[in-house]
Amino acid sequence: MQTGSRVVVPFGAKRHYTGIVTAIYSEQTAQQDNGEGDAHEEKQKNGGKVDRAKLREVIEVSDPEPIILPSQLALWQWIAEYYLCTEGDVMKAALPAGFKIESDTLRQHYRPRTELRIRLTEAYRSPSNEAALTSACDDLKRAPKQQELLLKYLQYAEYADGLCNTEVTRHNLLEQSGLTLAHLHALLSKGILEQYEAEVSRLGNAGHQAGMLSELSPIQQTCRGQIHDAWLTHDVCLLHGVTSSGKTEIYIHLIDEAIRAGKQALYLMPEIALTSQMESRLRRAFGGRVGVYHSKFSDEERVEIWQKQLSAEPYDVILGVRSSVFLPFSRLGLVIVDEEHENTYKQQDPAPRYHARNVAIVLARQFSAKVLLGTATPSFESYYNARTGKYGLVTLGERWQSVQMPAIEVIDTAELRRKHRMSGAFSPQLLGAIRDALGRGEQAILFQNRRGYAPLMECPACGWVPRCERCDVSLTYHRRYNLLACHYCGNAYHLPPSCPACGEQRLRFIGLGTERIEEELHSLIPEARIDRMDLDTTRSRSAYERILSDFTRGNTDILIGTQMVSKGLDFAHVSVVGIMNADTMLNYPDFRSHERAYQLMAQVAGRSGRRDRQGLVILQTRSTDIPVIGQVRRYDYEGLYRSQMDERRAFRYPPFTRLIYIYLRCRDEQRLNEAATRLLSRLSEPFGTCVLGPEAPPVGRIGGLFIRKVMLKLEPSFPTRKAREFLRGIVAAMSSLSELSGINVYFDVDPM
Ligand SMILES: [Zn+2]
Ligand SMILES: [Zn+2]
Predict the structure, then answer these.
(1) How far is the CA of 693 from the centre of ligand 2 (A)?
(2) 707 & 743 share domain
(3) How far is the CA of 454 from the centre of ligand 1 (A)?
(4) Ligand of minimum distance to the alpha carbon of 490
(5) Ligand nearest to the CA of 507
(6) For residue 519, what are the domain limits?
């Protein structure tokens, strides 16, 4: 048994669990230092004595060699400590399901894949047997099909100078030669060829050839130099580069340098959807040295990538989403966090509620690796760290090949509506711009951050609104399925034939979803080829790629989408971007709403612009006088940052304080309220005025569970380690009280 190996441990007669060995000790050593329990997740700290009642027998050691490296275990511990969850939560998130063992059968999920291959028998395999092979081949003259098959085999095997240079599978041999299994069997029985079984990788990227790197422009070269300078004094550097400034080329050169120095690189992206475009760019540069890791791969594939990373020849470059911070690394030298501002880097549910950018920084520190955070719209936390000297800062203010930033025109939809000049959701300016672009053979992107047809259905007579039975939200109408759907729990409901409250027949739809925009646009510009990219149209990876490739190839004129269309994708022929309704983003009750609205709008605006003509963005809003609208129009990130930071400083929000939310969930609302009040009183002693709440979050009930939130705003002077100890202690003490059983309590540290 070794640290980092999986073991199987029984709990009761029938249940078996897989555990990870985190430490090994004998009773003697246990008396010397604080023993840590192995095999299960719970640590025993009882003054060095082992609590025998808690001991369980290990009935099987699953791995002869460890599958978790000591550095990974240390990272798991850090995450559990910082994000206030258990190491078991971290293990569940970190390990591919293929490593877990089914409780009842003890059978492992993971099975290696094998294939049948064909080779020459030993009698013909070496250069000294070349003559023998020639005569065997001649002997087949009277069986021309068999002879043909043998010659085909030699061709596919790249036979030269008496040696075969490539493996040939039975499947490919038969399929490519067009000959039959009977012909093959004849050659097998004659002892010329033989078949054998070989274990194969599911990773399937053998044969990718690495190519040349494209040269950096003088500006990009300067930028690369500045990043290196920043790394002399800082481990983390923020690259603030406008959209389409060629950041990716710089990343690729930095990765190349890391590989040449014998190091590994980790390239993090915020969304699975974005990885395929980046994968092909990285493959062009680094060929088969690139491994891709995310949850749309099968478990088997993820297990194989994990094992390859443990092997003597791991991938040099890993491209992945947030879960790839959990992979084993042996010589990590560089971490790139692309689009570092994206909140998808934060896992919301379940625990561990970790931020992959921050975990990546800790991971890098374990290896003394350098970190580059890249974005056109930095998160305020990272920008603050850069401005106050904690991170290095490099700015790239010019677009690649000096393409101009698109012009942003703000349209007052309230006024146009008064004058009856809106066509549904479309201002005359936006329709005109789309028609002009299509007339020139160019494309348009329309952005609306709501999916479905209409976010609200209402009875015009009595104001009745359909709501989810299990959540405190109104239902979104989806025309394609003619259903009302809850976007929180996924429940679907039939449309009522009339208002259940007053009997009114004509119910109306209020608000704007991507589906409705698509429908309106079809009737306004019937000749346009329109596609839609949102959660509803991209359930499968292939659907996403199909929509994207249709648009890239020009088979689609207009792409309508949610924030999916705002992220880092480059299209050469998009000259118009329409932001359908900025107000929904601005009215969200959160201290980050303006930061986020700016990021979304600036990012989607960046999709517009061609080499020969300045792009155009039409920004539709009722709130033309809100400062953030002007800041978007002028690309005034600094102005936004300054004004928002003043507010955050005044109202004590991050980065000037640390936030920890404590959530309580229960089916019984009254018991929940009692528990929340009790928690609050216990918290007020150590934390005083730092505690706020309890309150119901904007959606106060999800899936039948009522939710209460208690907020901790910790001043920088409050030691965070101590705060965590208090919190763990209070919750542990509360959970032993019987009247509070059945209440689920969890923490969200640094919530997004
Ligand atoms: Zn009604
Ligand atoms: Zn619901």
Answers:
(1) 24
(2) yes
(3) 18
(4) 2
(5) 1
(6) 407-455+511-647
In the reported structure, the alpha carbon of residue 79 is separated from the centroid of ligand 1 by a whole-number distance in angstroms of 51
At 739 the pLDDT is: 61
Element (H, E) at 73: helix 70-82
Interval 266-294: pLDDT, tens: 999 998 878 888 998 999 999 999 999 98
**Do residues 602 and 726 both lie within one domain?**
no
Closest ligand, as measured to the CA of 501: 1
Question: What was the pLDDT predicted at 45?
Answer: 42
d(CA 520, ligand 1 centre) in Å: 27
Alpha carbon of 29 to ligand 2 centroid (Å):
53
The segments of the chain whose pLDDT lies below 50 read 30-47, 102-105, 206
CA distance 323 to 356: 8
What's the rounded Cα separation, in Å, for the pair 255 and 285? 10
Q: What CA–CA distance (Å, rounded) separates 77 from 84?
A: 10
Residue 105 lies in a domain: no
Cα of 470 to ligand 2 centre, how many Å?
5
Q: Is 183 left (phi over 0), alpha (psi -120 to 50) or beta?
A: alpha
460 CA → ligand 1 middle, Å: 7
Tell me, yes or no, whether 169 and 244 share the same domain: no
Between CA 335 and CA 255 the distance in angstroms is: 9
Which one of the ligands is nearest to 705 CA? 2
Taking the chain, what is the end-to-end CA distance rounded to the nearest angstrom? Answer: 41
Q: What is the pLDDT of residue 43?
A: 42
pLDDT of residue 610: 67
- Strands of the sheet containing 476-478, edge to edge, are 476-478, 483-485, 492-494
Among all bound ligands, the one having the nearest atom to the CA of 484 is 2
**Ligand in closest contact with the CA of 459:** 1
- Which one of the ligands is nearest to 487 CA? 2
Model confidence over 616-645: pLDDT tens digits? 999 999 999 999 999 999 999 999 999 999
The ligand that comes nearest to the alpha carbon of residue 464 is 1
Strands 456-458, 508-510: pairing is antiparallel
Q: Give 585 Cα–ligand 1 centroid separation in angstroms.
A: 29
* Cα 540 to averaged position of ligand 2 atoms, centre (Å): 23
Q: Does residue 211 fall inside a structural domain? A: no
The three state secondary structure string of 539-562 is: CCHHHHHHHHHHHHCCCCCEEEEC
pLDDT digits (tens, 9 = 90+) for 188-200: 999 999 988 887 7
Do residues 433 and 466 both lie within one domain?
Answer: no
- In this prediction, residue 738 carries a pLDDT of 67
